[in-house]
Amino acid sequence: MGVTMDEILEILEKDARVSPEDIARMTGKSLKTVKQAIAKYEKEGVILKYKTIINKELIKDTDASVRALIEVDIAPQKDVGFDKIAERIYSFPEVSSCYLVSGDYDLLLIVEGKDMHTVSNFVAEKLAPMEHVKGTSTHFLMKKYKENGVMLKHKEENKRIAISY
Questions:
Q1: Whole-number pLDDT of residue 153
Q2: CA–CA separation, 107 vs 98, rounded Å?
Q3: Per-residue confidence (pLDDT) for residue 1, from 0 to 100
Q4: Of 4, 112, 3, 135, which is closest to residue 64 (Cα–Cα)?
Q5: What is the pLDDT of residue 129?
Q6: How far apart are CA 95 and CA 139, in angstroms?
Q7: What pLDDT is attached to residue 145?
Q8: Nearest-angstrom CA–CA distance, 110 and 114
Q9: pTM of the predicted model, to two decimals?
């Protein structure tokens, strides 16, 4: 398919809420051209989803979730390489992202659960025992400073004045 990144895609990638009218003004293209391009990108699967980045740290949420980066060392299967095992792994609902990477491990997963125990159980009971999984390394995300190019503000901590005698 090989679509090159054009200015319409670049604008939408930075802010999916920009209207076709604004994109037309920004690019000098007609409104009809912009709308047709967007519809084509959606139909071809170039634009998969429109997403909002939410700074969950600023929301009082009792259902907050925990995210972890999990490195997975796998033994590739004959004739299919990493694809089949990756497909089995990313089919788990706990896995929000799955990447083939270079380095000491083969796959990098982003896994979400309601707490650290839930994520740990996923690794111990579902992921690690899988055939072709040789090892895992889990890194819990403690604090987000920047996500998808956006710097996140943090709640003000209760700052106490230091008292010295």
A1: 77
A2: 7
A3: 43
A4: 112
A5: 96
A6: 14
A7: 84
A8: 14
A9: 0.67
Using DSSP bridges, classify how beta strands 146-147 and 95-100 pair: parallel, antiparallel or unpaired: unpaired
Strands 133-140 and 146-147: unpaired
What are residue 35's phi and psi, to 5 degrees? -60, -40
Residues 90-122 pLDDT 10s: 999 999 999 999 999 999 999 999 999 999 999
Question: Hunting for tokens 């299919």 — which residue is that?
Answer: 80
Token reading at 19: 């209207």
Q: CA angle, corner 41, sides to 37 and 44, nearest 5?
A: 135
From residue 149, give the alpha-carbon distance in Å to each of 26, 53, 56, 63, 71: 21, 10, 16, 25, 23
Nearest-CA neighbor of 148 among 3, 16, 43? 16
Domains of the chain: 7-44 (no CATH), 62-142 (3.30.70.920)
Residue ranges in the chain whose pLDDT is less than 70:
1-5, 54, 56-64, 154-165
Cα three-residue angle 62-64-68, rounded to 5 degrees: 160
The per-type count for the chain, helices as H runs and strands as E runs, is 5, 6
